[in-house]
Design goal:
mainly beta, 27 strands, four-stranded antiparallel β-sheet
């Protein structure tokens, strides 16, 4: 009807007033909806508190005198295996480490739970009686840092990072060159009597621009073992780590052709297709299940080195993961610029159902400071109450 014609229409003042009068109630309601925040979800986590009693159990003065890594594996309902990476062996006298040396990995067995538990530290020695790493690479290249573990049926699965020196000075003169799976066929025997088979993982990449590996954390859920990894990319000019996950039937863990990688809602055979599930990840973390909340829990240190211990939750082992929540600020980094915190993990074997038990490690860029200050380089534990049964 008006095609090809220009309409010049100016509403009268009376029309404008009438129109606004009709619209004001709806405008007011819209403004209220914009201004009023949505009802907040009940909090999941309460206020975290240090656990001096549990810390003291690990503060040995002879032989095993500090270690990092700090992963835990339930061998039975009453026995927990602790996995440590670099470990100081020697003595602590007057707040200092003396006659101390580092070995690349050690273990501890814990019988019972809580402050009444009994701990036995396991350090291997060579033919000359000197302390040495508990587990060494079968191909005799570099060394192992123990990454994570899972006990399924009659088998204990231990994931280990294979590390090598770079020649760079300082505390970060190393790089990861591989990931291995150790299979212990008699996990209830004394660790020094374990029979261990080693398998090198093929789903890895290690270059200056891109690193990808699996084994940072494990979770047994139903008929599957979930193996979590990190995908680290430096090609964009920065460095970002992402969470990824694989799964395999619990009776086929060493059959790498049975591994599947979560990629955009599907489980794919090609590890290179694995989805980035979260960002700002660390190379060490934990994934566990919270029965009280019917949720899965991811615990890690923000970007790997930070005072912030982060938590995310999800309804399935692969996500979708919630936004990160800082549940504890490690105090050590605020006391000295040379100190850094890392390796935050949860330990479901120690949880009561009403609280999480989380560990981290405080280290120093100056090795001499770690020797002179024996308050550093121990597992440090915090308890985080679960404040709500609903999310």
């Amino acid at each position: 009807m008006f095609e090809g014609k220009k309409l010049n229409y100016r509403p009268s003042t009376e029309n404008v007033v009438e129109s606004l009068a009709m619209k004001l109630p709806r405008l007011a309601m819209a403004l209220l909806l914009i201004a009023s925040p949505a009802a907040a979800s009940p909090p999941i986590f309460g206020v975290a508190r240090p656990m001096p009693g549990m810390n003291a159990q690990f503060e040995q003065t002879n032989n095993w005198i500090g270690g990092d890594g700090v992963s835990s594996v339930a061998l039975t309902l009453e026995r927990t295996l602790w996995l440590f990476s670099d470990t100081w062996v020697g003595s602590v006298r007057d707040g200092k480490r003396v006659n101390a040396r580092i070995v690349n990995n050690t273990l501890a067995l814990q019988d019972g739970h809580g402050t009444k538990a009994k701990l036995q530290f396991v350090i291997r020695h060579d033919a000359g009686g000197k302390p040495t790493a508990f587990l060494v690479p079968e191909n005799k290249q570099g060394w192992f840092w123990l990454h994570s573990g899972a006990c399924v049926g009659q088998r204990l699965y231990l994931f280990s990072m294979q590390m090598q020196k770079t020649g760079d000075r300082g505390v970060f003169g190393f790089r990861q060159s591989g990931e291995w799976l150790g299979v212990v066929t008699n996990p209830l025997a004394s660790p020094l009597q374990w029979r261990i088979e080693q398998y090198q993982l093929l789903c890895t990449e290690f270059s200056a621009e891109h690193e990808r590996t699996f084994g940072a954390a494990t979770l047994t859920d139903g008929e599957y073992l979930y193996i979590y990894g990190t995908d680290e990319d430096t090609r964009s000019g920065g460095r970002e780590r992402y969470l990824a996950v694989a799964r395999v039937p619990t009776n086929e863990v060493t059959d790498f052709s049975a591994w599947r990688f979560y990629a955009g809602g599907q489980w794919e055979t090609d590890y290179r297709k694995a989805s980035h599930l979260t960002d700002r990840m660390a190379t060490e973390y934990s994934v566990s299940y919270l029965p009280k909340l019917s949720e899965y829990l991811l615990i890690y240190t923000d970007r790997g080195m930070s005072p912030k211990i982060q938590a995310r939750t999800a309804k399935s082992p692969w996500g979708k993961w919630s936004a990160p929540e800082t549940i504890f600020q490690c105090p050590e980094m605020g006391k000295d610029k040379k100190i850094f915190c890392y390796a935050a993990k949860a330990h479901p074997e120690e949880e009561t159902g009403d609280a999480l038990i989380i560990s981290y490690v405080a280290n120093s860029f100056d090795v001499g400071q770690v020797i002179a200050d024996a308050s550093l380089y121990w597992p440090r534990f915090v308890q985080v109450p679960l404040a709500s049964g609903e999310k």
